[in-house]
Amino acid sequence: MLRYTLRRLLGAIPTMLVIISLAFVLLHAAPGGPFDAQKALPPEIKKSIEHTYHLDEPLYEQYGRYLVQILHGDFGPSYQYRGTRVNDLIAEGFPVDVGIGSIALALALIFGTAIGILAALRQNSVWDYLPMGIAMLGISIPSFVIAPVLILIFAVTLHWLPAGAWSGGDPSHLVLPALALAAPYTAYVARLMRGSMVEVLGSPFIRTAHAKGLPLRTIVLRHAIKPALMPLVSFLGPAVVGIITGSIVIETIFGLPGIGRYFVDGALNRDYTVVLGVTILYGALILLFNLLADLAYALLDPRIRL
């Protein structure tokens, strides 16, 4: 398994190089520049600023310089937030996304898995149709609709929770964003778990366990749940990245200082280094969690360790 992990990590290097190259070329091919929005900027001053940030160099020299910076762990300076490095912006926003995303992920896994197992055990009954119907609604309704509804109910009407802001990570300010972010993922997990558990419960080894007189709880916890988790693990690879890095819409609605806000502002203002830094971070996280998902497969099913 160690050899496989090292091989995957080495294989991620050319993949990241492709991601960096495509993002770099596409950003610089877009019309406009990071300082074009300045009003009545004299040509001499604009030329001096571009020289300071090496934007007057040929594109291949800028690309080579940026690769060297990345090898040193430096994403470069931000063009929009003067005097600030992209590393500082990511260090400021990423913990916010990790905090809210981790809570949302835990909620989605706990409630989604429980609902899916319950629906599978009560197949074709009201305990199956009702939660799966609600889960379908959770998948169909976008988060930018769920979030205002939660604010209207729990903040405006009941006054139980604050409507937004960060406030240094006060737990009460994390509840509504985490719930809004967790809702669609809970629905996905519930439907995946229900379908997988129904298939596993119809397997020959489960029928054998029933024939031996094992109680249902033992059958589910000891024999059925591990193979039923296999499809869920495949889904969690990219899903963990999406939920931990947060949603741009959720950040905007609740006024969260996450990296999604910097990404949008950077794209609108041609802040190349910020957009590239966030893109590289997303790409690296996707590769990492896909690798972890494959390794989790080996833990759940020893037959595929080779």
Label this structure with key terms.
306 residues; 13 helices; MetI-like_sf; mainly alpha; 0% strand; 75% helix; transmembrane; MetI-like fold; membrane
SSE inventory with pairings:
Elements: H1 2-29, H2 43-52, H3 59-71, H4 86-121, H5 126-140, H6 143-157, H7 171-201, H8 204-211, H9 216-228, H10 230-244, H11 248-254, H12 259-268, H13 272-300
Helix pairs in contact: 1-13, 4-5, 4-7, 4-10, 4-13, 5-7, 6-7, 6-11, 7-9, 7-10, 8-9, 10-13, 12-13
Characterize this entry briefly.
Belongs to the binding-protein-dependent transport system permease family. With 306 residues, the chain is mainly alpha-helical.
General description of the model:
It is flat and about 85 Å long. The mean pLDDT is about 85. It has a domain at about 95-265: MetI-like fold (Orthogonal Bundle), CATH 1.10.3720. The protein has 13 helices and no strands. The chain is mostly helical. It has helices at about 1-30, 45-50, 60-70, 85-120, 125-140, 145-155, 170-200, 205-210, 215-230, 230-245, 250-255, 260-270, 270-300. α10 packs antiparallel against α13 (about 270-300). It comes from Solimonas marina. Keywords: Cell membrane, Membrane, Transmembrane, Transmembrane helix, Transport. It holds the Pfam family BPD_transp_1_N. It is found in: Cell membrane. One of its GO terms (cellular component) is plasma membrane.
